[in-house]
Fold this sequence. Notes:
This is Helix-turn-helix domain-containing protein. By secondary structure, the protein is α+β, with helices and mostly antiparallel strands. The protein is built from eight helices and nine strands.
Amino acid sequence: MKKEKASTNKTEKEAAPDRIVLGAERSLAILSAFIDAPDPLGLTELEDRTGLFKSVICRYMLSFVKHGYVVQRQDSSYQLGPRAFQLGKAFEEKFSYADFILPSLDNLMKATGESACFYIRQQDMRLCLYAVESGQSVKATVKTGSLFAIDKTSSSQVLRFFSVPGNNAKSDGRYVCISTGINNLLSSSMAAPVFGAGNAFVGSLTIFGLSQRFDPSNSDLIRATLLTAAQDLSARLGAQGVYVNPNSQIFDELALHPDREPTPVNA
Length: 267
């Protein structure tokens, strides 16, 4: 009997962390339900959004209201409270894109052997926000802070097309753009879009190198590596489910708009 009791105690100890994790996941699910909600939520809406029973939600709401993370309105609906706002402000003040993007660029450079950079859109221009150079003696480079026109390069294609809300679902699962010899006859590049909180477009994750050893059209493995890196970075920046049936096939912007020529280099 003593042996059986010891076994039971061991099982209970192993189960305890599982219950703690479950509680944490439920808490996060309930609070996350408010993120994209246009209006305060009632128990029915919360039940639909979380998959939890109303009785379970009510128990958690007692703690959320007590600690200021949720406020209950006069009509019994709920909305995020001041403590949640303070948490968001703390994140905003300490958040740095560099902490997320630079490691991704470094990993891409090491995985492919080519230089990597991250562009954001500045009206009709593209700004190199971060860059990591290839370790090879002969390489293509770009300086952080460089400003270029949005032209026919792969990063420009990404910035032009995927910065339009909803376009990410119109690419037929193709998210990797490529270009060769646009501004430099000796270099080629490939790029993929990165999204952030609320699935908002952030910028273009780009790999570029010398055409004699880097051929984007025949680099299925590198395109897949780039797409995976873009998806991982997007997830870390807060995007969820933004890539629709993603694959590493080449995205052709003109195929969707055959009557539209990309913006000229000097525009």
